[in-house]
Amino acid sequence: MLGGAVFYFQKNPSKPESTTPPSPKILTLSEDQVEAIRIVKSGADPLVMKKINGKWEITEPAAMAADQDAAKTLLSAVSSVTADRLIDEKPSDLSAFGLTSPTTQVDVTLKGGAVSKLLLGADTPAGSNTYVKLESSPKVYTVFSSVKTNFDKTLNDLRDKRLLTFNSDKVTSFSITSKGPAVEFAKNGQNEWQITKPKSYRADSPQVDDLLRKLKDAKMDLAAPAPDFKTADKIGTATVTDNVSTQTLEIRQAKDKTYVAQSSVATGAFKLAGDLGDGLKDKDSDSFRNKKLFDFNFSDPTKIELNGAAYSKTGEKWTGPNGQIDSAGIQTVVDKLRDLAASKFAEKLTGAQTLQIAVTSGDKHNVEKVTINKVAEGYEAQRADDPSVYVLSASAFDELQGAVKGIKPYIAPKPTNDKKK
After folding, report:
1. Residues in a beta bridge with 266
2. To which H or E segment does residue 27 belong?
């Protein structure tokens, strides 16, 4: 029993009284002077990050891009290490603290070549702290377990998990291939997305922006091994060009319905995190076409023409062919025109013309013209100077016609007589 107690206290020495103030500084370094960080954990290969041309990169155990946010967090941790307490200024036996064979060693290299080496040993008997020391100093300290956690990093913790690294603000064009021919997107003169291939179409800009965001956010799921890429079913590819380079990503789906991806900016195949797989699967040009008939959105129209009958707005007053009209009625027409959208597209405009619409809006007095034809099972519409044929449901057209019929002359409110009789 006595021998066991002696062995316990050798391995777990009691914390002696200290006259030093709590929370002494172990390391205080200037972050902009740090050029490399090396982490060596017992039984594992060294993990090395270096700052190259102003960016952090992993150089060991393999060369790869680093997650810049994770690198900055680690840099902050190694630049300022604060102890809970000084335990012993000149210990005679470092093995009692687990510091003869540290569990973790962190080397910080500064400009000029100076290296600070932080050694992390055993946990204290209570388990809430860890013994640490600098290799260049005999002093032994304890640090909170959170400090140890800051250095408990793996390659997967620090690597850049993005599958595409393009600058979304500098994208000049991008394309996807999933269902049918490749679909290419580019910005027009109004900085709005346009479909340029396989044909020129108006694009649903918010939907295209969302697709580009999903490509930007595509990340490796490193929590589990990736399915076999070669045997998985091909879902689609994406190609993105910014001001620096062109990057590609291919996505496939395994039998268990998980997605696996290969990227031109990362070596290997990775299980895909996020919702990009679903966002790309079975998509063609029609999936991203603008189905709305009018582009004025939330701009207030100043003029609307319906089969030649003109309605104009001056200030808050609307006038029609026979004088001032009720603004509530014409506003309902504006709302129906703003929401008028196709259910699908047709190859060719058919049927008999039913309604011609022209809407003038915006500071530049932009004019949009639409022709609507009656067909056997509903309606088809076409914008001026746009070959696309928009298929409208009968209910959508009927709601618009109902709003048009609801346009009424303006009736001035009757004056009230407030005088007492």
Report:
1. 263
2. strand 25-28
